[in-house]
Design goal:
By secondary structure, the chain is an alpha/beta fold. It has helices spanning 18-29, 41-50, 97-117, 150-159, 165-187, 219-229, 238-243, 251-263, 281-288, 325-330, 338-351; strands at 9-13, 33-38, 58-62, 81-84, 123-127, 141-143, 194-199, 202-204, 247-250, 271-273, 277-278, 320-322.
């Protein structure tokens, strides 16, 4: 499959989302034209202001309901590539279908629209998640692109509404990605585009999407604010701060991975895990306390936790790791350090008066 080359236009779904705004910015900075979709005109205002300097290279269109048949039919016309990031991520769904239906139908709906009207589309990149790869385990395990999270599907099937909220979210990402690959494998002989799926873990870093207060942050960003920027880590125990954590990526690196995935021919038809490495909350807290001068936060100061009790401590166990060799081989991605991400995120809070 031919890779995407400048000049060209890229469609970004859910363009006002935490990850998507960085994808839009990175594309524009590299010279691409971008058409973003949002659910309402109200959500388009911030994007138009943020990227006003790019003139007609940036446009925003409204797709009110991504689950409706043909929702993206008009949006895909005339674009050369698609970055599909739109999918719900929250932990307060009652019925699992509140997450599963938008995730699956939105993803498959985008591919259906590309099949019907995306004559100029050469590649589609879908944002999946490490949630579609991993499973909870009681022994340290390393997961690769060959792994699928069947565990969450079994739990949601058995427990329904009573399933843990994290399992509902994981099921939505797993089912959406499975549906994407099933659709592409069925139609790949008759379309001019191929499919790439990115599987990131927890995503942290500065936010340029519209968030006027910490309460407006997305799920992972809000957790970082609560545990790393609040003096008492929102009441979390030292034991929790030292023991909880998996893997992470800076949102800016994930955006870069989205763009590289359009450009690298070898990324076509591939599922790619992108992860910067391991973390415990205590690691971020320790890094935050090395920043000089310390950030001036409205919260009044940084938490301390139990310094040194995180990743470097002899008793610390990481149950989850990813094999990221495919990302290194195909994307050649360079990751920001934990120190850089933490410094920039706290500077972002300070600049916003948080």
């Amino acid at each position: 499959m031919p890779t995407v080359q400048l000049p060209c236009k890229v469609l970004v779904s859910g363009a006002n989302g935490y990850i998507a705004v960085w994808v839009v910015r990175t594309l524009l900075e590299k010279g691409y034209s971008v058409r973003g979709t949002v659910r309402s005109e109200e959500k388009a205002v911030h994007l138009r202001q943020l990227f006003s300097s790019y003139g007609d290279k940036h446009e925003v269109v409204v797709v009110e309901d991504i689950t409706k048949e043909g929702a993206f039919d008009e949006a895909v016309k005339g674009v050369d590539a698609i970055e599909h990031t739109a999918s719900p991520f929250h932990m307060n769904a009652d019925d699992p279908d509140e997450l599963i239906i938008p995730a699956v139908n939105g993803t498959v709906g985008m591919l259906k629209s590309a099949l019907k009207y995306g004559q100029s589309v050469k590649r589609i990149v879908v944002t999946s998640s490490g949630a579609a790869v991993l499973r909870d385990t009681t022994t340290p395990s390393t997961f690769s692109e060959l792994n699928w999270n069947e565990q969450c599907l079994e739990i949601v099937r058995e427990k329904g509404r009573e399933a843990p909220n994290m399992m509902k979210y994981r099921a939505s990402k797993t089912l959406a990605e499975k549906a994407a690959w099933e659709f592409w494998n069925k139609h790949k002989a008759s379309v001019g585009w191929d499919l790439t799926v990115l599987n990131p873990p927890y995503v942290f870093g500065p936010a340029i999407n519209e968030a006027t207060a910490p309460s407006g942050l997305g799920t992972s960003s809000k957790l970082f604010y609560n545990y790393v920027a609040q003096p008492n880590s929102s009441g979390a125990t030292n034991e929790f701060l030292a023991s909880f954590g998996t893997t992470w990526i800076d949102v800016r690196d994930l955006a870069e991975a989205h763009v590289i995935s359009l450009e690298k021919e070898a990324a076509g038809g591939e599922r790619i895990i992108v992860s910067a490495g391991l973390w415990k909350w205590q690691d971020f807290i320790d890094v935050a306390n090395t920043i000089s001068p310390p950030p001036k936060l409205a919260t009044g100061g940084l938490p301390k936790g139990n310094p040194g009790a995180g990743t470097g401590h002899p008793s610390t166990v990481h149950f989850l790791q990813y094999d990221t060799s495919k990302a290194a081989r195909i994307l050649g991605l360079k990751y920001r350090t934990m120190a850089e991400m933490t410094r920039d995120t706290l500077a972002d809070y300070e600049a916003k008066g948080w």
